[in-house]
Amino acid sequence: ISYRSNGQIKYKYKMLGIDKNWNYTNFTSLQYPALAPGDYTFTVTAISVDNIESNNLYFEYLMELYYFWT
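^ thats the sequence. predicted structure below, dont judge the formating
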């Protein structure tokens, strides 16, 4: 993957346990706005302009339930 190809790099990603299939995007950020509290694993793969895939990266998240008092 070459950063000189910025804007042409595609990404496939999914949140394990949430997304059944891979999602594809050219964007370098995304949101999951309605995640319930729990443990999540996000995986992403970069795809070069030559259609060569990088190794999968995995990110683990713990979404805790927060209570706010007014």
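The chain has no helices and four strands.
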